[in-house]
Amino acid sequence: MTTIVSNGHNQEDYAKTVFGGGREHHEEHVVEESETCGKILVVLSWILVCLTMPFSLMVCFKVVQEYERAVIFRLGRLLSGGAKGPGIFFILPCIDAYARVDLRTRTYDIPPQEVLTKDSVTVSVDAVVYYRVSNATVSIANVENAHHSTRLLAQTTLRNIMGQRPLHEILSERESISQHMKALLDEATDSWGINVERVEIKDVRLPIQLQRAMAAEAEAAREARAKVIAAEGEQKASRALREASEVIGDSPAALQLRYLQSVCKISASRNSTIIFPFPVDLIATFMGKKSKLENAEDS
Known about the structure:
By secondary structure, this protein is of the alpha+beta class.
């Protein structure tokens, strides 16, 4: 039988009909054969269980804890119904395999990472990540090792985030950096069945020379503030002394009271100071003579 193809369009249709249709039919045939073989093996497994009863029950019944789930594969395919547990579940020998998944929160201590910040400063940063498996089936079927993948991703995410920020933000905005890192990790690990619960920046280590420079800068700033405060105190004290001198100058009795108060204060202290009382009247006499001379000179 001879087939005549008139143009390119017909050639493509003919190829799809001959080859494409045959391939699809072959795939369907393979699927049907695998399903048939699977059913036969399941029946044989049940027969084996019945013949070896009750010893087969020791192999068929398994128990998982409250914090665990079991993901069952039958003939290499994921068994419908999702993960089993907690408690007892049943498997068929020879054709079923299962994997235990721990749902408890795990802690990963990220080792110190040497990071070059945005302003070209080398720092060593370490953190801790708290995560757990939220979907046992996805964590087994979608990734080879969900825990190892999450830990590697945490290290690279920490380095990337720290490399995009200057040093002063790393030192002062740890909380916002932790929240940003948690959001990135949670979004990336969602397809692995992992839920990142918390991320904390533990420590930021600076080079020794940079620590000394920052300490010197802080000390200089403190000394400058101390000098400003001392100067303001001296200014206020001088104003108070000027006002006090004006008050004492207006009242001679106030000078006498101030003199007696100073004597009392010195005598109360435990020292070897020798006090020679000096009459205030003589001081007033000298001050009066001095004022008279100044007035005479002015006149």
